[in-house]
Amino acid sequence: MKLSIALTPQDRKLRESRLPLAAEFLAGAWLVIAAFAYSYAFTLSEAAGFWNSLLCGIVVAVVALVRFGLPERARWLGLVNVAIGFWLIAAPFAFGYPVDGHRDALRTNALIVGVLLAIFAAISVTVAYRRHSGDFRE
After folding, report:
1. Which residue blocks in 70-138 are alpha helix, DSSP H?
2. pTM beyond 0.70, yes or no
3. What residues contact residue 33 under an 8 Å CB cut-off, 6+ apart?
4. Angle separating helix axes 9-37 and 47-69, nearest 10 degrees
5. SS3 state of residue 46
6. Is 74 in a helix, a strand, or coil?
């Protein structure tokens, strides 16, 4: 017995716009976990690196959840996650994360999460605005 569920074009559009939001939420959750998983004691900023990761993760996850629940009303909130993505790219340089040996993990983590977050948030914002304006292909 084969179940076939036909998705309407509106359902497909909604699903496609929520996939990047799920990735944003996962990036935020990872930032919260990384705040506790990595030691920031050897950076120039020590506690600031910890709080940066923790607070950015919380804001990213909350923004993704709000946008997931209210996709039409909270389209502009995606720009917050784009900005945080760019901040995460700049943060290792601003906070003086080390670049040598095993301690490079903080810098690499921030750069990778920042790039991915900026990309997924930009895609999500673009899709949301295109859906709202009706310029979204089937």
Report:
1. 78-95, 105-133
2. yes
3. 57
4. 160
5. coil
6. coil
